[in-house]
């Protein structure tokens, strides 16, 4: 009995830095931009390469765990994660930091399925397992939600590299405890790994994302070709999965309207969560001069609402059923985005916190609704495959949230900034790329010109931020109508039969 709970403690300890690293850099953007002279494109890659790599590798790493045992997978994943954390902490260029973050994603892709497999093998009693899963879920959601606050606290007292360096002692403790306490498992050498398929998927995602990001600033024939190649690889991947006898992703599950709709909900909810945190962290620091810690504290109502929204969402689903609650979650997200688009974050604090709290609860409703819908729609023997797909949708949504919100912001910022007339023509492109690059540029100019440039950049960023939030609200409004239409009436019918 004692060993069970020790294994749970080890799993929680290793899962915490994995979940925190998904969002901890959001408040570190200004500091990183200044320290490494990051362009807008490089900044987006530093943040979202972690989730994109993790999304593409999480399924085959789960299969690898079945093949070698979750203990070995956890040890290998923890070692890679620890080494990548050390590498990221001392990276002295954008390229090195991006590579380190990619390796962090690889380690995390091993750790996440290893922790779930560890819970499944350790807690054979269903009630105990549900309790352990509840703790696991709380750690994951809480870690991601409070990542910006932790990042702000660290940056208030230490250099940005400490954000990664704190992972190293945790990883060392986990490796020792895992080797000492966690029992060995039987391996299944016949388990297919699908590593080639995973590499095709990751490469396709990165090529498409790279082409779109780069084309926003430097449109060229090469970017078109890269996009076509990436898109072709994605299409080829899907076609292969549909005909393969051992597919990495069971696309037949998407034929069920409840499952396909729920996957879309999970992905879009993560896009909203991560994208909004990213934009708000930049505005608070670049425009209003908040410190990283102050920015993290400002976002606290959003984090708390996400953390405590689960019981509220469960009550609503038990009382009213899936379809109306899922639609309500999407609709509330739309309303909160529209409200935030018209809010001045530096003067209307109560209004901003109220809208953020509503959005946090809405996102949690969407996430919980999607999970409940998937688990109720699939047969028991398909539950693991469906859960793995949902986990991939979470990570892909996090990566896409950074990319989509960041690209939209860059697009509107470049078209709305009115650069000072006396700014040299060769510097206009830099000033128009992003507010971070404008801030870096202002340090090289005389005080008067720097002041005018910062004012222009702040106004353009605020206007662009409002436009992006308005677009997000419109998308969620459309999605709420789609969710109401797409979710099968059988869901509500089944609920009424079970009452």
TrEMBL record:
Tagged with keyword Membrane: yes
Annotated ranges, domain Major facilitator superfamily (MFS) profile: 7-491
PROSITE patterns (UniProt xref): MFS (PS50850)
Cellular compartment(s): Cell membrane
UniProt GO cellular component terms: plasma membrane
GO molecular function: transmembrane transporter activity
InterPro entries with a match to the protein in the record: MFS, MFS_dom, MFS_trans_sf
Keywords: Cell membrane, Membrane, Transmembrane, Transmembrane helix, Transport
Residue intervals passing through the bilayer: 43-61, 73-92, 98-119, 131-154, 160-182, 194-213, 219-238, 258-276, 296-317, 324-341, 353-375, 396-414, 467-487
Domain of life: Bacteria
Pfam families per UniProt: MFS_1
Membrane topology annotation: Multi-pass membrane protein
Residues annotated as signal peptide: none
Record-linked PANTHER family: MAJOR FACILITATOR SUPERFAMILY MULTIDRUG TRANSPORTER MFSC, METHYL VIOLOGEN RESISTANCE PROTEIN SMVA
Protein name: Methyl viologen resistance protein (MFS superfamily)
Provenance organism: Acinetobacter baylyi (strain ATCC 33305 / BD413 / ADP1)
Gene: smvA
